[in-house]
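Researcher: Here's the sequence for the chain we discussed earlier.
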Amino acid sequence: MKKTILAILALCAVSAAHAAPQSYRDNMAAAGKAYEDENWPALNEALNAAQAMRPWSLYVYRNRILARLLAGREEEALGLAEKAADRGLALDLSGHPAFDKLAALSGFEAITARMEENAKPKGGGGPVRTFAETGLLPEAIAYGRKQTLYVGGVRTGEIVKAGEKAERLSPVAAAPGGVFDLEVRARHLWAAVNNPPPYEHAAPDKPFAAIMIFDGKTGRIVREARVGEDAAMLGDLEVAKDGTAYASDSKTPRIYRLAPGDNAPEIFMQDPRFVNLQGLALDEEHGRLFVADYLAGLFVVDLETGEATQIENAADAHLGGVDGLYYHEGVLIGVQNGTTPQRIVRIGLDEAGASAVSFTVLQQNLADWNEPTHGAVVGDNFHYIATSNWPSYNQDGGVKDKPARQPLRIMTAPLDGN
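Model: Thanks. This is the structure I predict for it:
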């Protein structure tokens, strides 16, 4: 009778965990409660629901492996670990006694060996440009005429440039906030600017996010179009040929549009599947905008209707953790700094742009990196910021003792022959 009662209580707990949670936060709270109660079926149920809402969260994925082990479902745990290895990932499966069960399973040694191989550096060998600056917290990069390099700093708000053969950066403009993205259009520099930390002159009581235009020669502010809401963080920017700008908001996930003649960016579209928007990649020829979400994956948005379609994963690859995203000759180039290992990847698309049909790692986990972020396609090369130095800062913008900030390095991943 006691066993029957316990079984009924466990079933009720699972049913409640299944029925009640409506959000990711609810599901994770249910998972925490189930863990404290050692209710392993409910733990697995809640984490599965959380993963459905954050398909590419490696944090949730790792905890699902642990939950399977705690529930005595070792083969399922092994299968999840193997899937991560198949996708080129290297997970830390330690730190809890239950992971010892995994290590004892037949087949796990081979998975461990593959993950160790996955973590090794790959690619590299391309040109590297190094500049002495360590304090920019560089996030934005663009190229202008005669291969002039432009870089924007989140920490300082500076926009700097260097000619094709220059060894030093020279100032162009000073933004009233951190520069998160740059686009060069004729003699103007378009920028996504935000003034919360880690911007060094942050005004937490008066936060703003704006699309700004600077004169490329004088640095003068030509236009400043602020988002009319405090809860915004513009992280990526694309500018169409007609001057229409699109910007992703990573704080309250949505996409803004600033049309020619508009006074302020307007919400272009939002989708309940969005979690943490990052890179945008404009394909004007086909009237679409590709969107990267750190935790929800890749989407393609119809520029006429604003409708978002989640890109299918026919390649069975890990499509999360993408920061910078770029469209080039029918494929997407992505900077995956939300994965282990961090990678520069090329994602082949079907003709409709709705399915990832191939996935190639161009570079990964290189010794000269300190979190790569944004880049730019120039000809058959992808030039990117290799040392953003984000890991060297606290959330409030303070500088950590470790890891040390590195000089600005612009590295290259060749796109031909890979």
